[in-house]
Amino acid sequence: MHLISTFAFAFLQAFHFINAEDFGYDGVRGPTYWGERYQECRGKHQSPIDINILRVKQVALPDISFVGFDDSIDDVHVTNNGHTVLIEVDNEPHPRVSGGPLDGDYIFSQMHFHWGDNDTFGSEDKINHRSFPMELHMVFFKEEYKTAQEAVKHSDGLTVLAFFYELDRHKHPAYDDITAALANVTEPHTTVVMSHPFSILNILPYDLNRYFTYRGSLTTPPCSEVVIWLDFEQPVRLAHDQIEAFRELRSATGKIRHNFRPIQPIGDRVVFYNVDNKYFNYNEVDNPDEDNTQRRKRGHNRSNVTLAKDSPRTALNAV
Ligand SMILES: [Zn+2]
């Protein structure tokens, strides 16, 4: 357990920096100036990007294996690091992912959020120029590199599972424990342990089959180009108040009203769009009167979305 804590700490050093004043999102510490101190922030394969659905390459990748995502995790630490809120776990073994575009196994390191001043923007990646009010990044490092610190030296060192949020009239009950914890870490460099066990699967959307994937970078300095991004198409739905709770967090210089990096050039990169034709699109049902609880129940019964493989419905016209 101590070893893992060391991994996590080393990773924080690499990914978010110890000194909260190293970078920010406004003024002379803002994204425009990151490249002056961190050369890689001027690279050609940076994140985030705006994904143009007309330019993606449709693929049917192997299924992703999500291991430990439905485990009940006891020791969940919630930390305000001055840039965002981090969620880390002590439980062994850590959750892991493999399959999809990934070669090998990737071990969970931490997750964190990016948001905006109001509900009209805040995500980092965009889909067809659309911003979402918030985005979740679940960061994993490649097992063969042993530590996150070592992994960030390799072009396939990290994978980030990214999930977008959109507004719902109803609260998402699985997020109540997170927003309750936020109230106890409003000051920078504070940590609390979550009061109830936590299951990763409960905070994710139910369609984990449709996603975009591309090669990019960390979206904070040092902007290392070491990330295989997976952006899941189906957003998680939260109530306005649940998103607003994140905007109460403070950095050393005041409230963290926004913490997303602007869009970077896509350059010569190709974005792949994974569509498994066995599955029907969630867009088929979007009943505004259905609350999150009903949706989650439906989501846990994924057999009801199975369709024949020769469905004439194609990925692009389904979006
Ligand atoms: Zn992030």
From TrEMBL:
Q: Where is this region: Disordered?
A: 284-303
Looking up PROSITE patterns in the UniProt record yields: ALPHA_CA_2
The reply to whether Signal figures as a keyword in the UniProt entry is yes
The cross-references to CDD domains, in alphabetical order and at most eight, read: alpha_CA
Give the signal peptide range: 1-20
Q: Name one GO molecular function term.
A: carbonate dehydratase activity
Provide the E.C. number(s) assigned to this enzyme.
Answer: 4.2.1.1
Q: Where is the Alpha-carbonic anhydrase domain?
A: 21-275
Alphabetically sorted, this entry's keywords are: Glycoprotein, Metal-binding, Signal, Zinc
Q: Which EC main class describes this enzyme?
A: lyase
Q: Which GO terms describe its cellular component?
A: cytoplasm
What InterPro entries does the record tag this protein with? CA_dom (IPR001148), CA_dom_sf (IPR036398), Carbonic_anhydrase_a-class (IPR023561)
Is Glycoprotein a UniProt keyword of this protein?
yes
Query: What family does the Swiss-Prot or TrEMBL record give for this protein?
Result: Belongs to the alpha-carbonic anhydrase family.
Q: What is the name attached to this protein's record?
A: carbonic anhydrase
